[in-house]
Every structure is written in structure tokens, then in C-alpha cells.
Amino acid sequence: MRINSLQLFQFRNYQSIDIELNPEIVVLYGTNGAGKTNILESIYVGTIGKSHRTNDTSDMLMFNANESGIVVNFEKKDTPQKVNIKLFRQGSKDIRLNDMKISQKELIGTLNTVIFCPEDLQLIKGSPSGRRRFLDMEISQTSATYYHQLLQYNRLLQQRNTLLKEYRGKQNIPLDEWDIQLADMASFLVKKRLESLKKINLLIDLMNRKLTGGLENLTIGYEQTYGEEGNIIYKKEDFYDLLKQNLPQDRHRLTTSVGPHRDDLRFFSDAIDLKKFGSQGQQRTAVLSLKLSELEFIKSEVGEYPVLLLDDVLSELDELRRTNLLQFIHKRIQTVITTTDIHDFKNLPGVQFIHCQEGRIQYG
Length: 364
Prior knowledge:
40% of the residues lie in helices and 24% in strands. It has ten helices and 15 strands. It has helices at residues 36-48, 104-107, 128-140, 144-166, 176-212, 236-245, 247-253, 274-277, 280-302, 319-329; strands spanning 2-11, 14-20, 25-29, 67-76, 79-88, 94-97, 100-102, 113-116, 218-223, 264-269, 272-273, 307-311, 335-339, 351-357, 360-363. Strands 2-1-4-5-6-7 form a six-stranded antiparallel β-sheet. The chain has a six-stranded mixed β-sheet with strand order 8-12-13-3-14-15, with helices on both faces. A hairpin with a 2-residue loop joins strand 14 (351-357) and strand 15. The longest helix has 37 residues, at 176-212. It starts with a strand and ends with a strand.
């Protein structure tokens, strides 16, 4: 998979630009605030229909503009494709694939990308929601069914929580219809997560061994705070029973305490829990291994590598990890990188340099 060109209209600080991208490494460089990350953001919006930086669409529009446009021309399995997205300050997005209008849900999985930001280095130490979001988006890019079920589950979960609030203080709450559906969807989601995690674990350990010279074994464990310790709940009848058992607690807290929305991931280097006892170096190596395994996972599912988007992460890695990362992607994966320092790329053949400055771009 590769992106051939990108057009932006009134997006962030870009009035109108047209960028031709080479098939290997593209380096976007310039000072902080020049708009390098805005270009990566626009590509990511072309992937899933929304930003990784903001939930407010109007943030992506140029100041005083009422609409904005993103056009991504790419090849998937040697077939030319085009995603055209219009963003409006008021009103819903207009998303088109090859000039046919589609929903945001239908866009997922069309253009596969993996994005790596400085915030991702906090993935292990951060909140469980960030780790769930990572896993959900990785699976969603390769399974439209999973993404659809995830949306359905979250919608039903919100409805159940609303009922808990509406019937606060009352004994009889009509939740059985919601519990049956939630249990069924929870079972599907957890099974798919465990199935995907089994593949990711093989890949992440391989990547970690490459980065550490085979010194450490890295695994990801799946964790649930409900049910019996060490026993992962994945059957729909077990989810249904737990929803009933935990109803008194849910009524008190006015929220649902059982389900995949409560689950978490744990990273282990051999027997060491990296969140609790891992050094900063171990944690960063684990996250880098995770991102590289994400590339391999998507390739194994869809048949080709996704496009890699690196947002100023090289400055956060030491020289050994930078070298290992660049060696892995060079001549293998189309990669768009933002940086303020182009020193690391000077000796790499086939690199395209694009200078970003005050809403303009210049090649070379």
C-alpha cells in the first residue's frame, strides 16, 4: 500500500497544497509549529474519518473557514483509489471513496495506516482506555465486522447506563433486553481481541528480540477486573450471568462494571510487569516493538504493509532504537516522518525531503 499524492484545502494552516509522495521514506521537516503534524493528521483523517488529535472537527478547519477538504490518492494491491473528505464547521462530514459517498464506518480499513506519536510512548504507563483504543483500532482496520460490533456495543452500553441513571433508587430496572445483547456482543469482541492478541504476541516478541539482540522476551497479557482471577471471561452466558450478579454494584455506581469496555492489556518482559517495574528504556522498546508488530499484523491480515506515520518520535528514541527503526522500514514500508532535524536521514538513499514553513511546502 502506498500514498501517491495528498491535496489539502483550508486544512489547519494550509490554504491549498498538493503533495506528491515517493514510495519509500518522506521526511517532513521544519521548525515547531510549521504544520508538519497537520499533514500527518490529514492522512490519518483519510484513514478513519477523524483526527487523532482532537474530537472537534472545527479545530481542523483553517481560521475563519467554513469548510475544509482532504484528498488522498493511494494504491491498494496495485489498484488506484481515492478518498475525498470534506469537513464543515457546522454539519456532518462528506466522505467519498472513488467519488461514491460512504459512511465513516465504511471508510475504516480502506486506507491502512499506523501512526506513532510521542504520546504513544506513554501507552504502557497510561490509562487502560488508551490501550483498549489501540487494540480496537488495530483490529478494526482489518475487520469491518469488529468495528461494526464495537460501535453497536458502545451504543447499547450507553443506553444501559442511561437506564441505570433514570431508574436510580428503584428496585426493578428493565435491563434484560440490554443484558442479552450486551453479553452476545461482549463475547464476540473479547474473542476477537484474544484471537488477534495471540497473533500480535508472536510478532511483538520477534520485534523485541530484534531490538534487544534477543535479550528479552516480550508478551502482552489480557486482563479483566471482574470474574475469577486468571480466568478470562469470553462466553456470552458468562457475561450475562456477571451482568446480573453485578447489578447491585451497577445500580449504586450508575454505570456498567462488566464487559470489554473495562478490560486492559499488561506488558511483560519475561516475568516483569513493565508498567510497575519496567525501566523507561524497557517501556519505550516495548512500545516500539508494539508499533512494528502492528505493521506486521496488518500485513498478515490484509496482504500488504500499511503506510507508517511517525510524528516526531525519533527525537524521543536513543540512537540504537532510531537506527533499528529506520533499518526495519527502509525500502519496505512507505513512511512519512516529521522532524526538526534531518541528520538521521542524510545517508539513507531514496529519501524525499519536504520543507514545511508557514503553510507552504518546498521539496528538497
